[in-house]
Design a protein that fits this description.
The chain is mostly helical and 44 residues long. The longest helix is centred in the middle third of the chain and has 32 residues. It starts with 11 loop residues before the first helix and ends with a helix. Keywords: Membrane, Transmembrane, Transmembrane helix. It holds the Pfam family COX4_pro_2.
Amino acid sequence: MAEHKHGSMDTEDHEKTFQGFVKFTTYAVIGILIFLVLLAMVNG
């Protein structure tokens, strides 16, 4: 098993994945809110 040295890991892929997750979550919440507003207007 390879030895682990603190501070030597490349976190670029982790940061890109997290940014993608944040962007997806933001768009999903905005989409859900728009859907709920439209649903309230139709059923109003």
